[in-house]
């Protein structure tokens, strides 16, 4: 994709700009995802001195979506002292963001009002207790009441984007969460698997002195290469966490990610389901996901055409 074409691509509706991908399901797409989407630099934090350490995005949910994010990785904690949607706050490693479920619901609705041909995976990756146990029943009720008309029923999760559009003009959000008996499983899909180096980073990549001495970027690159070398099921979305931390918090490594995932350099983007990363604001990964999905749609169409041709020739014999 040329620089000129990138400038022409509207990030707030990049899926609409690629009608070819209507033949793909959410399980088959490569989606740009925002890691810890509820913790951004515009929010306030319960630990005011550690704001830069806990914020993984520059901007709010709405701005993340406008910049092309189509998978939001969020973590919730329960605040029994608030009311309604504000009982549910976003959190990063025990530090609370000022963002609440009310902000998320409002921003998703506002975004879809303008960009109704875009699809979003809402990944409630972690749900934590606060001063009292998390109220899953109330959370379930609020999600259905406040966002229900936009939620894709789990029974339809395997449909292509084109089929989902035929089913409903409003249902554009696939919601996933950890299992709980109070969550309606026709609304909440199974928790998304995250491939994350985490605290076992060195063990995953290797534990020799030479490897330990390597820069974090190099070790993350090796980890991603190892994950993508393994075949992946396409029956459900999965998330690759392309993020690292140092003593100052989340590391801005957009140049490295742009180099690694550029289709001119590798096939990494097309091998992914969700690329979950920090600081989407100035990233080129949305463009790379767009390109990867165009290629996936073309290859799926070519495979289907070959299948039809083979069976047509067989019938003539």
From TrEMBL:
Protein name per Swiss-Prot or TrEMBL: Phospholipase
Cross-referenced CDD domains: PI-PLCc_bacteria_like (cd08557)
Organism name: Pseudomonas fluorescens
GO biological process entries: lipid metabolic process
SUPFAM superfamilies the UniProt entry points to: PLC-like phosphodiesterases
PANTHER family recorded: PTHR13593, SI:DKEY-266F7.9
InterPro entries: PI-PLC_domain, PLC-like_Pdiesterase_TIM-brl
One Gene Ontology MF term: phosphoric diester hydrolase activity
Domain of life: Bacteria
